[in-house]
Structure formats: structure tokens, C-alpha cells
Specification:
Elements lengths: L5 H7 L41 H14 L3 E5 L2 H9 L7 E5 L4 H14 L2 E5 L4 H6 L6 E6 L12 H10 L3 E5 L17 E5 L13 E5 L5 H12 L6 H11 L2 H19 L5 E5 L9 H7 L7 E6 L3 H10 L4 E2 L9 E4 L14 E5 L5 H11 L4
Parallel strand pairs: 2-3, 2-4, 4-5, 5-6, 10-11
Antiparallel strand pairs: 1-7, 6-7, 8-9, 9-12, 11-12
Helix pairs in contact: 2-8, 3-4, 3-7
The protein binds pyridoxal-5'-phosphate.
């Protein structure tokens, strides 16, 4: 019997047992190369660890099942995964992407435009007409979205984006880092490729940098090229990291549930707060993308939200220096809550507002997190 509920799938990691010893967790294969058998064949498929490593197999199988994908790959970081997909866009073709999105992706796209002659068209996240206007049939090769856009959390309808991309002969790639497949499955909604920084929710403990790719079409030329690029550019995950990633993923369902509950309670508490101009969280009914999020995020709105502090750049940054429990650090999706003044680390031309504080809500007691933010906002 195979688990159909992703919570069971994750906890049991497909009930892996090592055939050699019966161990219930996979061995870590540190080898860089593999000896051949008497017929000069490969013993278990792997020949050299820049192409493949047996430690990947267990984690890639779980990600594939979770994403309901034809094939999944792990890579050395989320950016390695993003790069392998974006590098498949031919010179002279175009990419359509939201004007606000993860800044690493934005910088990579800008590099493709400057150095490789790939055209870029930006659209307003959450505005389908704007997305459609950014796509040119025959010229747009790839539409890139984040279902909730980092760090404003505007919501993009994946199914509508897929329809628009496919109607123009383009593919849709979805960076699902902040919406793991427990809540949203991009491939089921029509996306061609799902990308994740596994450093975040999948790993979940801020102790591993990793990336993942899943495809609906394992035989298609884009996937074949992206897969080859992992090996040619050397974007492979270390075996120790692959093991840590699988270990982290086994508690993803519990961590996700708690982070979603905490973030919703916190967002509700701070909505309308006197020291704030607003709370950006797709789980709030007041959020402009709430209806799409409610349809698309079937098991919680996630742990990411942003607070718009009343005041300027300095006022927002001061709040991020005053929290005592919530760590002022970048990244997201870990068990511990983090706060970040995004504008301080974005490039100078970034459209992210000066007064935006991004929070990654963890699994702590939410009362502690609320009290900490209250004192940091200066009202306690
Ligand atoms: N995508 C999103 C939405 C992110 O937030 C990040 C990192 O913060 C990445 C991709 C890049 O992932 P990594 O840091 O694992 O390379």
C-alpha cells in the first residue's frame, strides 16, 4: 500500500530501508566515483557524483511523490535550480516575470538580458491582464512566477498563468519555495516545472542549502537540458546535505501546520495596529489576493508575511534591531522566526518599499512572537 496523504508520505519518507542493513534512514554515500562490475556495468546506476549520487535517490523520490511529478532533481541551492531552468531560454527569446520577485531570480534574469540577449517583460503580480500583456506568442519562451510574490505576497493564479503561457507556446515555471506541495501543487495546476529553494521549508532547520526541481514532462527538451546543466555546471548537492534535507522533510507537515497557524494568528493580531501602515499576508480576508490564495493554497497560507511600519527606512530598520526572540536574519522557512528589513539588502533600484519588514514565522509559541513584536514596535 502506498501513502496517498502527503503527511504520511513525508513522515515515512516512502518507508525507506537500506537493503544491505535494514537501516531505516539512507546511508550517506560520500564517494565521488564508482567502480564498475565484472561486465564493466554500473553497479547501481551511478558512475560519478557530479552526475548522480545514490544518497539523492531517496530524497528525490519523496520530492517527486510530493510534487506528483514525472521526475525530480535535487541541486546545490535554490539558485542553482533557478539557473538551470533559466539557462534553457534561447538567446533572442523572451521571459515574462513579475516586477517584484525574489531578488536573486531578478538579478539572474537581468544577467541573461545583458549578457545573452534574452528579452524580459515584467508584469504586475496578481493582475492577469498585465501578465497576459507581458506574453508575446512565438517570442515568449518562459513565464516565471512565484504563487505568492516575495516579499509583498501578492498572489498569482497558477492555473490562469499556465493557460496564458501555453496559449502562446511558452512554458510556465513556478518558484514554489514559499508554498510547498503540501498546500499548492503547481504541476497539477498546469505548470511545466516547479522550482524550490529546499533551503527553506523543505529543509526547515536553517542548516542546509539545497534546491529542487520537478517536472511534468521528463522527456521534454527543456527538462533534458536543465538536468544536463546540473551536471555540467556542477550544481550538485553534497551527499551530507541530501541526507539532512530528507531528515528535515520528514517533519515538514507538522512544521508547516504550526507555521501557518502562527502566521495567521500574528497577522490577525497586527492588522490595524497603530504602529503599522498594514500587514501583507494572503491569509487575511483584507488581502487583495485572498480569494485566489484560498483556492490555490489548500492547506494553509504559509509562514511568510510582511509588516509595513509607519515611518521611513530608518524607522523600519530600528524595529528589526529591537526584537529579542525573533532573529534579525535573512532566509525563511525554518523552525525559528526571522525578521528582515528587505530594503537594506535589496539592490538600490528595488521596488520593495523602504518600510517593509519581512517575517518568516516559525513554530514557537505565537504569544511569545506577538509579545516580542509588540515591544519592538515600541508599544509595550
Ligand atoms: N526562491 C525564493 C523565493 C527565495 O526566497 C530564495 C532564497 O531566499 C531562493 C529562491 C534562492 O534559494 P537558495 O538561497 O537556496 O539559493
Amino acid at each position: 500500500m502506498t501513502a496517498t496523504d502527503p503527511r504520511t508520505l513525508l513522515a515515512q519518507a516512502l518507508h525507506y530501508t537500506d537493503p544491505a542493513t535494514g537501516a531505516v534512514t539512507p546511508p550517506i554515500h560520500m564517494a565521488s566515483t564508482y567502480a564498475r562490475d565484472a561486465e564493466y556495468g554500473l553497479v547501481a546506476g551511478a558512475s560519478y557524483s557530479r552526475a548522480d549520487n545514490p544518497t539523492y535517490l531517496a530524497v528525490e523520490r519523496v520530492i517527486r511523490e510530493l510534487d506528483q511529478a514525472a521526475e525530480s532533481l535535487v541541486l546545490s541551492s535554490g539558485m542553482a535550480a533557478i539557473a538551470c531552468v533559466l539557462e534553457t531560454v534561447p538567446t533572442g527569446k523572451r521571459v515574462a516575470a513579475p516586477s517584484v520577485l525574489y531578488h536573486g531570480t531578478m538579478e539572474f534574469l537581468q544577467g541573461l538580458s545583458i549578457h545573452r540577449g534574452v528579452g524580459l517583460d515584467f508584469f504586475e503580480a496578481g493582475d492577469q491582464a498585465s501578465l497576459e500583456a507581458a506574453i508575446t506568442p512565438g517570442e515568449t519562451d518562459l513565464v516565471w512566477i512565484e504563487p505568492i510574490v516575495n516579499p509583498t505576497w501578492a498572489v498569482i493564479d497558477i492555473a490562469q498563468a499556465a493557460e496564458a503561457a501555453h496559449a502562446a507556446g511558452a512554458h510556465l515555471a513556478v518558484d514554489a519555495t514559499c508554498t510547498p506541495a503540501l498546500t499548492t501543487r503547481p504541476l497539477e495546476l498546469g505548470a511545466d516545472i516547479a522550482v524550490q529553494s529546499a533551503t527553506k521549508y523543505l529543509g526547515g532547520h536553517s542548516d542546509v542549502v539545497a534546491g529542487a526541481l520537478s517536472t511534468a514532462d521528463a522527456a521534454g527538451p527543456r527538462w533534458t537540458r536543465a538536468k544536463r546543466l546540473r551536471s555540467l555546471a556542477g550544481g550538485v548537492l553534497g551527499p551530507m546535505e541530501a541526507w539532512l534535507l530528507l531528515r528535515g522533510m520528514r517533519t515538514l507537515a507538522l512544521r508547516w501546520e504550526r507555521a501557518c497557524d502562527n502566521a495567521l494568528a500574528l497577522a490577525r493580531h497586527f492588522e490595524g495596529h497603530a504602529a503599522l501602515d498594514g500587514v501583507l499576508y494572503p491569509g487575511l480576508q483584507s488581502h487583495p489576493g485572498h480569494a485566489v490564495a484560498a483556492r490555490q493554497m489548500t492547506a494553509g497560507f504559509g509562514g511568510m508575511l510582511s509588516l509595513m511600519v509607519k515611518g521611513d527606512f530608518a524607522a523600519a530598520q530600528a524595529v528589526a534591531t529591537r526584537t529579542k526572540l525573533i532573529l534579525p536574519a535573512t532566509s525563511l522557512g525554518g523552525v525559528e522566526s526571522l525578521i528582515e528589513h528587505r530594503k537594506a539588502i535589496e539592490p538600490p533600484d528595488s521596488p520593495v518599499p523602504d518600510n517593509l519588514l519581512r517575517l518568516s514565522i516559525g513554530i514557537e509559541a505565537v504569544e511569545d512572537l506577538i509579545a516580542d513584536l509588540e515591544q519592538a514596535l515600541g508599544l509595550r
